[in-house]
Amino acid sequence: MINENKARFANESFYEAFNKRDIAAMERVWGEDENTTCVHPGWPPIKGFEPILNSWAGIFENSGNMEIKISDVQVMASEDLAWVSCIEKLYTIAESGVLVSRVFATNLFHLEGDSWKMVMHHASPVPDIKGTEEVSKN
Amino acid sequence: MINENKARFANESFYEAFNKRDIAAMERVWGEDENTTCVHPGWPPIKGFEPILNSWAGIFENSGNMEIKISDVQVMASEDLAWVSCIEKLYTIAESGVLVSRVFATNLFHLEGDSWKMVMHHASPVPDIKGTEEVSKN
């Protein structure tokens, strides 16, 4: 259970780094294992710490109006490997109002030294009857 | 390393069950943990052993001409949780010839008793410049 809590905390740190567009925090989230992989929604898989961090830097430059809120968090943790899945609600501020789209994420964390580091982020769009839902108009 | 091999074997059993459309084998692959989740490419996540098996039964009924070959297999295993990622090359026999599309899969296995059981299959399409590539014409 302790490892589950640590994995949950590491998962929250990842989304906090995203929402703050904090590339230094994002660097602290990710692991340097050779298997480390990131799949942004609709992208081909990116392997390795540096290419992954570069992709986040690019996303941060182009995502000024995005925020992720997570729900349906589930955790399974072993000695040094932990799985967290969640639904990401991705809010985008557009001219017509706030748009929300849903993404399903499989996140894996590996114990490196005494830190739980992200070694996999696999995100893919959740289909919706309406596709992208408009939640409010300003 | 032993657990890595067991996870690799469990992963192969999953694709073998798919290629043989063997629902009994597919039942033996999957775990009954409450977190057990399956994301078919472009589908919403399905949770729980029975709904997941029902989805495979439906796919088997409608996929007579499909075969998956995997590549780029990478494995990370802990005491009782293991991660396998791979590229699925999905071959479909169409009137115009054999079509191949690529899917990226994150598969997780959990030790239940003395068996490594699949608790997550997260598959999403890999974008390609050509989208779907035609490999041969008959």
Task: Give a structural overview.
- Two copies of one chain form a homodimer.
- Chain A has helices at residues 2-19, 23-29, 49-61; strands at 37-39, 46-47, 66-77, 81-94, 97-112, 115-125, 133-136.
- With 138 residues, chain A is of the alpha+beta class.
- Chain A has a single domain (2-86, 104-122), classed as Nuclear Transport Factor 2, Chain: A (Roll), CATH 3.10.450.
- The first copy, chain A, contains three helices and seven strands.
- In chain A, strands 1, 2, 3, 4, 5, 6 and 7 form a seven-stranded mixed beta sheet that branches.
- Residues 131-138 of chain A have low confidence and may be disordered.
Please describe the structure with a list of short key phrases separated by commas or semicolons.
138 residues; 28% helix; disordered C terminus; alpha+beta; seven-stranded mixed beta sheet; homodimer; Nuclear Transport Factor 2, Chain: A; 45% strand
Layout of secondary structure:
Two copies of one chain form a homodimer.
Chain A: H1 2-19, H2 23-29, E1 37-39, E2 46-47, H3 49-61, E3 66-77, E4 81-94, E5 97-112, E6 115-125, E7 133-136
Parallel strand pairs in A: 1-6
Antiparallel strand pairs in A: 1-2, 3-4, 4-5, 5-6, 5-7
Helix pairs in contact in A: 1-2
